[in-house]
Design a protein that fits this description.
By secondary structure, this protein is an alpha/beta fold. The protein has 2 domains: 63 residues, no CATH class; 198 residues, Aspartate Aminotransferase, domain 2 (3-Layer(aba) Sandwich), CATH 3.40.640.10. It contains 10 helices and 7 strands. The chain is elongated and about 85 Å long. The C terminus is likely disordered. The chain binds pyridoxal-5'-phosphate. Pyridoxal-5'-phosphate binds next to helix 6.
Length: 296
């Protein structure tokens, strides 16, 4: 079927094949045998590939250049996909992230050659503590959901170390889908609480679900309906009174950053999604933070 955009009508490279056409003609050598069958061990040679396209260099270049124009990105148009995919990074930030000092650092590089990067990471941890109201940050987790899992595993470990493992995690139905997934992977049973009053979770609903077998309440703020959870402080008090933790999915931190600190609201553990709230290019590091306070 023809599309409306002729550029999208690029045929398969197999359709461009023409018998005996070649990318590069191998010239006859005057310094010895250049026939691959005579010089390369037989077991390293591939059998004929049935229907392999026979195309010229320019056929190949034009075919793949045309295909490359099919890439749809924020540089060519708006794509309303998700909180990270629709984000626009200023070009200057992209350039800075690609500085060789960042992009070429090798994990096995010696510590004395990594001092600049280590200093930046150390200072970043401090900034993130200040922004979130947490006491400590790790730069280890490699994605938002990975940060959630790390945080929930820490909560599980806390109760285990204290000899009183807890089984449940309360999650409002307005939380992000990764929240129940991370809790489940960390070994918890998820107790779902319904939103009320037009989309937010109420202290009453939490109070009736909270008990001493519940390790944490995990919420997303702003929540997945795009609304601010208004009663976090009260909810945190209810959960803390029964010895539980508050995990707040911080993926949407850009909505409250610089205005309110999650730590001040009684939140104990969060993850930052640096590719959403900040300018980390996709596939960069993410982090998770936690309050180092004694158990509530
Ligand atoms: C994007 C997002 C996540 C998951 O983050 P990833 O980096 O994609 O793993 C979790 N929670 C919320 C609210 C998100 O928007």
């Amino acid at each position: 079927m023809k599309s409306q955009n002729p550029q999208l009508d690029e045929p398969l490279i197999f359709k461009k094949s023409s018998k005996m056409r070649k990318g590069i003609p191998v010239l006859k050598s005057d310094v010895g045998d250049t026939i691959p069958e005579n010089t390369i061990p037989r077991e390293l040679l591939r059998e004929d590939i049935n229907g392999f396209p026979e195309v010229s260099e320019i056929d190949v270049v034009r075919h793949f250049t045309r295909l490359s124009h099919w890439n749809f990105g924020v540089d060519t148009g708006f794509y309303p996909l998700g909180s990270c995919t629709m984000k626009y990074n200023p070009k200057i930030n992209e350039d800075i992230a690609r500085l060789a000092g960042f992009s070429k650092v090798h994990p096995y590089q010696s510590e004395e050659l990594n001092q600049g990067a280590l200093q930046l990471m150390y200072e970043l941890e401090g900034f993130l503590c200040e922004i979130s109201g947490m006491d400590a940050v790790t730069l280890q987790p490699a994605a938002g959901a990975h940060g959630e899992l790390c945080g929930m595993l820490m909560i599980a470990k806390y109760f285990k170390e204290n000899g009183k493992p807890r089984k449940k995690v309360i999650i409002p139905d307005t939380a992000h889908g990764t929240n129940p997934a991370s809790s489940h992977l960390a070994g918890f049973t998820v107790v779902s609480v319904k939103e009320e009053n037009g989309g937010v979770i109420t202290p009453e609903a939490v109070a009736s679900a909270m008990d001493e077998d519940t390790a944490a309440l995990m919420l997303t703020n702003p929540n997945t309906l795009g609304l601010f959870e208004k009663h976090i402080k009260e909810i945190a008090e209810i959960v803390h009174k029964k010895g539980g933790f508050i995990y707040c999915d911080g993926a949407n931190l850009n909505a409250i950053m610089g205005i309110a600190k999650l730590g001040d609201m009684g939140v104990d553990v969060i993850q930052f999604n640096l590719h959403k709230t900040f300018s980390t290019p996709h596939r960069g590091p993410w982090q998770r933070a936690c309050r180092r306070e004694e158990a509530p």
